[in-house]
Each structure stands twice: as C-alpha cells, then as structure tokens.
Design brief:
mainly alpha, 0% strand, globular
Length: 147
C-alpha cells in the first residue's frame, strides 16, 4: 500500500464514501418518516446501497488500498438539517423523498464525472451497477412521492 492514492483508488474511495453516506441517509430518513410504506422503501434502498458499498470495498482492497468512511460529524449535521427542513414542510414525507431524490441525482453526477471513468478499466461493471441502482431508486422514490 502506497502513501499516495492513484486515480483509481481516489475514484473508488470517493464512490465508497458516497454510497455509505447514501445508505446512512436512507436509514436516518427511515427513522424519521411516519409513512410505513416509505419507511420500508427507505430501508430497502439502504440495503441495496450496502450491497454496493461492499462491492466497492472489495474493489478498493483489490486496488491495494483501504476503504475510507464519511466524516461522522458532517453526516450528523446533514441529518439534523434534513430533519429540520422536513419538520417545517407542509408534507414531511414528500420533503424527505425530495431530499433523497436530490441525493440520488448527486450520486449519479458523481458517477458520470469523467474522473470516475478510471474505474471502468479494472472493474467494468461496477459503475453500471451503481447507475442501475440509482435509476431504480429514483423510479421507486418518484412512485412513492405520488402515492
């Protein structure tokens, strides 16, 4: 293991941190939302992200690096802000779903960034799996929003 990360290791670690954040955000939102169907959806999406996290962690170790984790203080602050926004919203469930949709969009942007293309050479299906997960999550969230 080197002291400096190469482009592949940086891309994989950025993806890993984003997936962990997404997983934790879904779990946090599931604790806060009162709609049981949406709560179940959030837990399913969190589980899906956890599977991807593990795949990325394996790829990171295969690239001779160790996985990074998100800043816990930053995560706690974000969760607090999201709960406050939802608390002052006319429809808390829709607000929370909108927050999750925005996060899905950010995750998709990260994956479509040109710097992430380095992953494709060593792990050709990894980004595609993540993008498929995002598309599925977005579709489920949109359906839950209109239900």
């Amino acid at each position: 293991m080197s002291l400096l990360r190469n482009d592949l290791q940086v891309a994989l670690n950025n993806l890993h941190v984003a997936l962990i954040s997404s997983d934790e955000d879904y779990r946090d939102a599931a604790e806060f939302v009162s709609d049981s169907a949406v709560k179940e959806l959030f837990m399913q999406l969190a589980e899906s992200r956890q599977v991807l996290e593990k795949s990325v962690a394996v790829a990171i170790r295969a690239s001779d690096d160790l996985p990074s984790v998100p800043d816990p203080d930053r995560q706690t602050g974000q969760h607090l802000l999201q709960r406050l926004e939802a608390a002052f919203s006319a429809d808390q469930t829709v607000e929370i779903i909108d927050q999750r949709l925005a996060e899905e969009s950010q995750l998709e942007q990260l994956l479509n960034d040109s710097e992430m293309s380095v992953i494709d050479k060593e792990f050709p299906s990894l980004r595609a799996e993540c993008l498929t997960s995002i598309k599925e999550a977005t579709a489920k969230l949109e359906r839950a929003k209109t239900a």
